Amino acid sequence: MLIFLDITAIFCYSFGIMRRKGKKHLTVGFVSLGCPKNTVDSERMLAEIAEAGLIITAEADNADVVVINTCGFIAPARDESIDVITHALACKKRGTVKKVIVAGCLAERSGEELFSQIDGIDAVIGLDKRDSIVRIIEQTFGQDRRLAYLNKDLSQQRDKAAPDDRTRLLITPGHCPYLRISEGCNHRCSFCTIPSIRGPFRSKPQQLVLAEAKELVTAGAVELNLIGQDTAFYGRDLKDKHTLSSLLKEIEKIESLRWIRLMYLYPAGITDDIIETVARRDKIVNYFDIPIQHISDRVLKAMRRSDTKEQITRLIENLRAAIPDVTLRTTLITGFPGETEEEFNELVAFVNMVKFDALGCFTYCAEPGTPAAELHGQIPEQVKQRRAEEIMLAQQQIAFAKNEERIGSSLECLVDFADSSTVTGRHFGQAPEIDSLCFIENCSANPGQFVQTKVIESRDYDLVVRQI
After folding, report:
1. Residue 97: which region, alpha, beta or left (left: phi > 0; alpha: psi -120 to 50)?
2. Do residues 288 and 328 lie in contact, with contact meaning Cβ atoms separated by under 8 Å?
3. Sequence-separated (6 or more) residues with CB below 8 Å from residue 305
4. What's the mean per-residue pLDDT of the chain?
5. Contact present, 60 and 66 (Cβ < 8 Å)
6. Do residue 125 and residue 175 come from a single domain?
7. How far apart are CA 98 and CA 260, in angstroms?
8. Quick one: angle between helices 133-142 and 36-51, nearest 10?
9. Which terminus of the chain faces fewer neighbouring Cβ atoms within 10 Å, N or C?
10. What is the extent of the structural domain holding 27?
11. What are the pLDDT digits (tens) for 163-181?
12. How far apart are CA 340 and CA 325, in angstroms?
């Protein structure tokens, strides 16, 4: 998602910026691309920039320096990042922008190629230089040569702690921010580039997570969305052996916090302890985001996933038995190399049987450097697209039917947006940015407030509710 920051909101943020006397303040345009993990990195960089007294402008095409926090996960994301870089460089060529800095996952993955193939970039910085962004901005204005700050060996990150994300300038709504609890990944899925970009799995120490959680709640958060490459694995690498369950119990003690949401749980890591913790705790919403990717045992093995169809089926049964109103979200991949029509039909049948509450389906991308890219049986793009569309049509019927069944029921909603004509929010089964919405009628509440509602209409994936 492309985010250009609202300069009014920036100046309202309570950093207490000190202006340096006698110096013209550089203006910084900032573009944030990619996933919630990248969003957190953007918010840390923005805080550093604001605290240094640089002026963050919404007019990125006319800024002294443009910082682009890129995504490099799959080809469409890389293409979007390249398009944004190319646009910024065109502004530089016209003279409306002086410097262009490329950060984030694409810089980490392909920094040297960016330098050699694209003229005009002033600096490319890897993920571990995130907190040095101000120094790097200043260096680009102090010398003519281009600068590269890239990690040469990601294995060296094994002994590095997960990044400290405290003090962020939020670009998400302040009442529902992301809380990253780990960095990197130890899984070696054959299609995935994340371990080669973000390094091995490292949990944040529990006390650091709690300190950041308290900071966010003090600033107005009522919902915390816990993220990582695999949140279920949290704590297994820590010497004090804190687990996800123990972390959740501590976060729940924070006063004024109402909702805790778990995102990105690798299915094999969801233990009975995690399920029981969610079932018994009031503040942890009954929502599990579990990317299963496929259901055919042969395809799962080729993907180097540790799950089987039987294990995934049993996990879903256990979740629904322990938490009857649980919301289940998943993501799937169609067109993995060698996927037969029979294996695809098995996936469609599973979707129709399980009836996930929310589902995202992506076509397989052959990513350079991944084992799956070398497999025989690469599938034509039109076949991958047809299969993805069929999955989403099946899910559409499921989602629409579930919404119809909700008509007349009561829901507590968290208000996300309100103006003179429209109020939108979410119930516990809707995560911010990725899930559907509730359109709230007869509502005078402000963003960040909870309201009791009754469902009066189904509007495709969304619901129309009325405050009661």
Report:
1. beta
2. yes
3. 189, 268, 293, 294
4. 92
5. yes
6. no
7. 42
8. 60
9. C
10. 3-152
11. 999 999 999 999 999 999 9
12. 35
CA–CA distance, 235 with 12 (Å, rounded to integer): 36
Q: What is d(CA 214, CA 228) in angstroms, rounded to the nearest whole number?
A: 18
Q: State how far the Cα of 107 lies from the Cα of 41, in Å rounded to an integer.
A: 13
pLDDT at 467: 97
Using N-to-C axis directions, what is the helix angle for 272-280 and 244-251, rounded to 10°?
10
Contact 345, 422 (CB under 8 A): no
At residue 290, what is the residue type?
I
Phi, then psi, of 372 in degrees rounded to 5: -65, -25
Residues 377 and 431 occupy one common structural domain: no
> Do 42 and 134 belong to one domain?
yes
d(CA 137, CA 99): 8
CATH code, 253:
3.80.30.20
Tally the domains of the chain. 3
Half-sphere exposure (Cβ direction) of 16: Cα atoms closer than 13 Å: 1
Distance CA 266, CA 438 (A): 28
Same domain, 398 and 419: no
| Domain CATH number, residue 451 | 2.40.50.140
HSE-CB of 31 using CA atoms within 13 angstroms: 26
| 5 phi, psi to nearest 5 deg | -75, 145
C-alpha to C-alpha distance for 223 and 347, rounded to whole angstroms: 34
Q: Which of helix, strand or coil describes residue 34?
A: coil
Residue 414 φ/ψ, nearest 5 degrees: -95, 120
Q: What is the pLDDT of residues 344-395, one digit of tens each?
A: 999 999 999 999 999 999 999 999 999 999 999 999 999 999 999 999 999 9
Q: How far apart are CA 432 and CA 49, in angstroms?
A: 26
The amino acid at 377: G
Residues 430 and 377 in one domain: no
CA 348 – CA 350 distance, rounded (Å): 5
Nearest to 264 by CA among 187, 353, 354, 165: 187
Q: Residue 461: pLDDT above 90? A: yes
Same domain? For 389 and 286 the reply is yes
* Residue for token pair 């300190």: 211
- Name the burial class of residue 39, with classes exposed (0-12), middle (13-18) and buried (19+) by CB atoms within 10 angstroms of its CB: buried
